[in-house]
Amino acid sequence: MALMTWSDSMSVGIARIDKEHQGLIALINQLNNEVAAGKTKEVLDGVFTKLIDYTKSHFSYEESLLRSNSYPNLPTQNKEHVGFTQKVIEMQTNFKSGKSVLGSPILTFLSNWLVNHILKEDMAYKPFLATKGLK
Fold first, then answer.
1. CB within 8 A of 109, min separation 6: which ones?
2. What pLDDT shows up at residue 1?
C-alpha cells in the first residue's frame, strides 16, 4: 500500500522537477513496502541508499536551476535541503548500527517532510520560475 500519492496540487510547473518529486515519492513508497514486507536489513539499507542518492541528485538539479535564474530565496531552499539530507543520513546510520528501527516514525518523517517542503518551499518558486518561461 502506498504511503504517499502524487497529486497535481504538488506540481511546480517544471516537468523535470515534478518527475523527480514523483520519483522521491516512489522511493519512499518502496521503502514503506519493503518494511511492511519484512525485508532484510540489507534490502532496506539498499533502498535507503537509493533514496539518499536520488535526493542529493534532485536537490543539486533544483538548486542549480534556481541559482541560474537568480532565485532570491535560494539560501532558504539550500538550508532546507542540507538539513533534510543530514537528517536522512543520520537516520540511515542509526538504522545500520542498530540504534533505530526502520519503521513508521522514519517513514512518516520522510513523507511529511517531502509533502510539506513541496507545498511550501517549492511552491514559493513556482510563480518566480513561471515568469522566466520555464516548464
1. 87, 91
2. 75
Strand, helix or coil for residue 5: coil
**C-alpha span between 113 and 111 (Å, rounded):** 6
CB atoms within 10 A of CB 27: 20
Residue 100 in domain:
yes
pTM of this prediction? 0.94
User: The domain spanning residue 35 has which CATH number?
Assistant: 1.20.120.50
Residue 40 located in a structural domain:
yes
What is the 8-class DSSP label of residue 88?
Answer: H
Instruction: List pLDDT tens digits, range 5-36.
Output: 999 999 999 999 999 999 999 999 999 999 99
Is 3 part of any domain?
Answer: no
